[in-house]
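> tool_call: predict_assembly(chains=two)
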Amino acid sequence: AQKVTQAQTEISVVEKEDVTLDCVYETRDTTYYLFWYKQPPSGELVFLIRRNSFDEQNEISGRYSWNFQKSTSSFNFTITASQVVDSAVYFCALSEADSGAGSYQLTFGKGTKLSVIP
Amino acid sequence: NAGVTQTPKFQVLKTGQSMTLQCAQDMNHEYMSWYRQDPGMGLRLIHYSVGAGITDQGEVPNGYNVSRSTTEDFPLRLLSAAPSQTSVYFCASSRDSYTEAFFGQGTRLTVV
């Protein structure tokens, strides 16, 4: 069974600090996909990034960067120079591509609540 | 482009009542799913569908029914509401199992 662990329940940082959100996953499949979603205080879920299991290149998008390491089953998310608008709950999620024809299982971690203090 | 539309946004039910949460998407996605979000629990999959006429259970299916008669719609039925079903419900759709899911705005349900 697949599992996603976000050990950090809540994090508080002062504006302009860097912060890393941890995500550790478990899966038996060799082909899988990892996602990060953001849930701001308004409540909607916003897709941030997708990474497949064959692509271990780190990705940078503006102040956001992601570090995918298969050796440690981790897919961590770093925000550089945090801003108040980054305050949200961030979810890591895992989908196994080989879960069988007609099957679907997108498993979410419990989320990390990030508070950026001005 | 509306994306995924959920109705209603808020609902209060009495224990034992039934109701249907509506979900519609206009992206021609085959995959649709329902999640519930509870404090400290993340999002948990209730039911999903990989195409019209095909549905299956997720992690927490008890007390809920679904059907998928069209590609666009995927309603979630609460048969006999219980206080334990107080939650925020999200509907999502995706092209397949490995592309990103698009979520509706959520329905905040309170069962008293």
